[in-house]
Design goal:
The chain is an alpha+beta fold and about 140 residues long. Helix content is about 20%, strand content about 35%. The chain contains one helix and eight strands.
Length: about 140
């Protein structure tokens, strides 16, 4: 193998290793890749919105930012009775006191979030909202 080919192989290998390291450490800066991977066990519950028509409730948890992202955020988790079902939304610091309103047995509306997106509606069993908008990982 010529010296030029060996150099190309080493450069390619180095680039692949650097990309792998970058992918591995990204959660330190941005939090978990997937909304479903956000752990709620050690988070502080700051609100609860119970449905009037079924046994579902949305619990709101306060979440500190990852190591280098110091701002707080809120995680909305769906429960059926006392059993965790799934994380439904993750909203960033809006500066507003947002609220959750049950529209029907499967739909919630989040009010007063930001001036650019003041409300949005989610089907609690199918939809999700992640304020980070990470492409490829939602």
């Amino acid at each position: 193998m010529s010296v030029l080919k060996k150099k190309k192989v080493w450069i390619t290998l180095l680039i692949v290793i650097l990309i792998g390291i970058l992918i591995a450490i990204t959660p330190l800066f941005r939090g978990p890749y997937y909304l479903k991977n956000v752990e709620i066990e050690n988070l502080r519950e700051v609100g609860k919105y119970k449905s009037d028509v079924n046994n579902y409730s949305i619990k709101i948890y306060y979440k500190n930012g990852p190591i280098l992202y110091s701002e707080y955020s809120y995680l909305g988790s769906l429960f059926k009775g006392d059993n965790f079902v799934r994380n439904v939304f993750w909203v960033g610091p809006s500066g507003n006191d947002f609220s959750v309103e049950w529209k029907d047995e499967k739909t919630i509306k989040i009010n007063n979030l930001t001036s650019s997106n003041p409300t949005f509606t989610l089907n609690i069993l199918e939809d999700k909202y992640d304020f980070r908008g990470i492409p490829f990982f939602n």
